[in-house]
Amino acid sequence: MSKENRAFDTQRLGTGYGFESHPRRAVELPPTWVLVVGLSFLLFALCFWVYIGLNLLAPTPRPPRRSEKQYTTILPDGAPSEAKELPCWLDKWAAEKEAAKREAAKEPGTKEVVPPQMPIEEPELFMSVVVPAYNEEERLEGMLEEAVEFLESEYGSAHDGKNGQQKYKGWEILIVSDGSSDGTVNKALEFAKEHQLSQHPKLKRGPWSKNGSAKAPHSTHIPHGSIRVITLEENRGKGGAVTHGMRHVRGQYIVFADADGASRFSDLSKLVEGCRSIEDKHGRGVAIGSRAHLVGSEAVVQRSKLRNFLMHSFHILLRVMTPPATARIKDTQCGFKLFSRPTLPYIVPYMHSEGWIFDVEMLMLAESANIAMVEVAIGWKEVMGSKLNVIWDSIGMAWGLALLRACWIAGIYRRD
Ligand SMILES: Nc1nc2c(ncn2[C@@H]2O[C@H](COP(=O)(O)OP(=O)(O)OP(=O)(O)O)[C@@H](O)[C@H]2O)c(=O)[nH]1
Ligand SMILES: [Mg+2]
């Protein structure tokens, strides 16, 4: 039957049939105050359960174990040392802060002592490098080779180099083996031994230079004790390993660098320059190595379409979900970031993320403490052997980011 016919039929049959067969009855709404109270109750219940859920889901970093607060190095005779206690600026800082708080509580009306009034202890050397390493026996030596060559020539304590006017000299590398099950620790100690004992150690190459390189066959002799190896008993993730290392640094500047040697290490001087140019009167600043200028270059284009797609999606998510200064950073994920020492107490004690999203948490913490950040273009190369699982790690990062943001908004994460 056509539309017109149906309309005709309804008219012919009159009211009481078809749509008209159920006469409309006015629905009686409860009084407004009942609606308002009901909705408020629902909203409150929702917030309550979200808050409880966030508390349950929010990652809480496990405290370091006894053996993780120790390190091994190579002694002047080439033997590995006994496990030695790691210096920990954070323990001292936290104890002093607690004591100052107790003092302040005794005298009502006194302002609570918080940073910058609560300074970090003085540095002992110029540059600390933290290297998170999870099963990196293949890639670590090549990275260390590049690092020690630059560090010794630029910041070595034996001579003034270009930094003759600097108050602090010298460098250290803290390798944090993140529960590695391969020979990462041995490779690190072997590297240290050879480079300490020999005046002309044999050059070690990373997986990126298998086909030879124009470099000299010898590498850099290093002062003893400049490489320290820390072993985490269980795998924590890159964020856990970096944060752990940063609790034990002695440098005026602290950089973390991936064990794969993908970042051009000599660009560290650009990071130092960049950081110095933005430091505030307390000496606080963060310089972020950036590969943003390489988007569209061969190295990035050669990556799979899926990886590039996920990278762009993550950037959009970051822009939407992070506060403005962090959202402006074009490459938050680069594993080459430098912090001046006075910056550490604003970041390290408040870290939660153990996985890949920890960089964003560091930047958000810096932003919330009004610490200036600068992005510095660095050289970078694709290195074989990435352990990143593109799909699962992307999902993990998106989830981690959402959780991180929600926990800060809900006040579950806060500075105390
Ligand atoms: N995959 C992984 N890496 C870790 C972990 N803990 C520390 N790391 C270190 O994190 C650094 C980065 O790892 P890569 O596998 O190179 O990952 P990526 O640099 O983010 O990704 P690519 O750009 O593909 O190289 C390396 O120094 C790893 O050894 C962990 O639990 N898993
Ligand atoms: Mg890498």
Automatic annotation (TrEMBL):
Residues 195-222 are annotated as: Disordered. It is a single-pass membrane protein. The chain crosses the membrane at residues 33-57. Keywords: Endoplasmic reticulum, Glycosyltransferase, Membrane, Signal-anchor, Transferase, Transmembrane, Transmembrane helix. SUPFAM superfamilies: Nucleotide-diphospho-sugar transferases (SSF53448). Pfam families: Glycos_transf_2 (PF00535). Pathway: Protein modification; protein glycosylation. Its EC number is 2.4.1.117. It is an enzyme of class 2 (transferase). The keyword Transcription regulation does not apply. This is dolichyl-phosphate beta-glucosyltransferase. It comes from Clathrospora elynae. The lineage of its organism: Eukaryota, Fungi, Dikarya, Ascomycota, Pezizomycotina.
